[in-house]
Design goal:
globular, alpha/beta, binds fe (iii) ion, binds N-(iminomethyl)-L-glutamic acid
């Protein structure tokens, strides 16, 4: 593979403070060399080594590819009607998930595969180069396993979410459903998944059920992450920290003890904030400032799904987080890149440093701050994934 030099980068976010200024490790007038799919060199353009190919960034800003650590892309149908009703005042509940379960079960493998491909590509055009995605709309052993098999063809970051809601067939026997999720369904799914997740919420799974499901998943070699404290206060966040989950996702309704638990995990459990969900359900946003000031590590992700957050756009999430969650532009950009990488326990993405994967984007803008300053504007102008031009 020929080496490529990207030069004349007006402002480069490395996410490595040792390479530049501030926590983002900003380098002005920078260059990056990519070789064999990895970053081979980063620094000031006037000191860059020679390469086989040269690309002139024209003074544009560059940053690491976004790491979207929370999405639900394996689904059939959509929920336009539910969204319409919600915008006329009908509140969001976990119950809408059933609509998508029926449509997902009815969809062919090819249809589901095309859906995942479509939204992974849509996300990539907006700068996302690493994306996690979940099962959770099959809710039978077969449909959960096929969801994960299909997801795994598009990303290594796959999450078993058989515990999204109690399957309709088990409405009168939730304990029986937990037995299925921790037994035969887990066995069918574990080979296709890296993570195990549970929707710990009123109308979904309580703390005891969530503990049983996450513990069983961990025994099968999956690493826990939790949908926690989205719609109401509850045990999800503290359970996530107690079990050493990689992330507690949503974190919208937090007590001081929840915030303390996340902070005292020392970065082991990342608070993953999903503003697309509050935006699209007209709910109150999580308070990122409170978490950051307490010392908790945060990530920003899309939660892309047909019910609560049908956006694949990390730039949109950054803009909302800055406008409404009291994050600075620097914090939001860090949370959408390095934060996501930490939530996926990956040190090869989310940064532009020698040895990392050559996942980066150029913006049609002089600075990463424009992602928040120019909301809704398609600023992502070029994307490399593993050193290959991807958009
Ligand atoms: O993260 N909270 C649970 N799951 C999704 C919503 C899924 C749906 O409504 O289809 C979420 O918001
Ligand atoms: Fe979710």
């Amino acid at each position: 593979m020929p080496t490529t030099l990207i030069t004349n980068i007006g402002s480069l976010v490395t996410n490595d403070p040792s390479l530049g200024t501030g926590p983002l490790g900003l380098v002005a007038d920078a260059a990056v060399v990519m070789a064999d799919g990895l970053i081979a060199w980063v620094g000031p353009a006037d000191r860059a080594p020679a390469a086989d190919e040269v690309y002139d960034a024209g003074g544009r800003a560059a940053l690491p590819g976004f790491v979207d650590s929370h999405s639900h892309l394996v689904f059939g149908g959509d929920r336009t009607q539910e969204f319409n009703a919600r915008m006329s005042g009908t509140p969001y509940t976990a119950g809408g998930i059933r609509t998508t379960v029926a449509a997902t079960r009815a969809a062919s493998d090819a249809e589901l595969d095309a859906t995942v491909a479509r939204y992974v590509a849509e996300a990539r055009r907006q700068g996302t180069t690493t994306i996690e995605t979940k099962s959770g709309y099959g809710l039978t052993a077969e449909d959960e396993a096929r969801s994960l098999r299909i997801a795994a063809a598009h990303t290594p970051e796959t999450t078993y979410l058989g515990a999204h809601i109690v399957a309709p067939e088990y409405a009168d026997d939730p304990a029986g459903y937990v037995d299925l999720v921790t037994g035969p369904m887990l066995e069918a799914c574990a080979p296709h998944a890296r993570w195990v997740d549970v929707f710990c919420e009123k109308g979904a799974f309580d703390g005891d059920q969530a503990r049983a499901i996450l513990t069983a998943g961990a025994r099968a070699g999956l690493i826990p992450r939790v949908h926690a404290n989205q719609l109401t206060y509850g045990p999800g966040v503290q359970l996530a920290v107690e079990l050493g989950a990689a992330s507690a996702d949503h974190c919208t309704h937090l007590t001081d003890a929840d915030v303390d638990a996340l902070a005292s995990s020392g970065g082991a459990t990342i608070a993953t904030l999903l503003p697309g969900a509050e935006f699209s359900t007209r709910a109150t946003y999580p308070d990122a400032r409170r978490l950051i000031d307490a010392g908790a590590a945060v990530a920003l992700s899309t939660d892309c799904n047909p019910g609560s957050s049908f956006t694949s756009s990390m730039p949109f999430c950054i803009a909302v987080a800055v406008r409404d969650m009291r994050m600075t532009p620097d914090e939001a950009v860090a949370a959408a890149t390095l934060g996501g990488a930490r939530a996926l326990r990956r040190d090869d993405v989310g940064r532009i440093t020698a040895g990392a994967r050559a996942d980066l984007m150029l913006l049609d803008a002089p600075s990463h701050v424009h992602l928040a300053y120019r909301p809704g504007v398609p600023l992502v102008s070029r994307v490399w994934q593993g050193g290959v031009r991807a958009a």
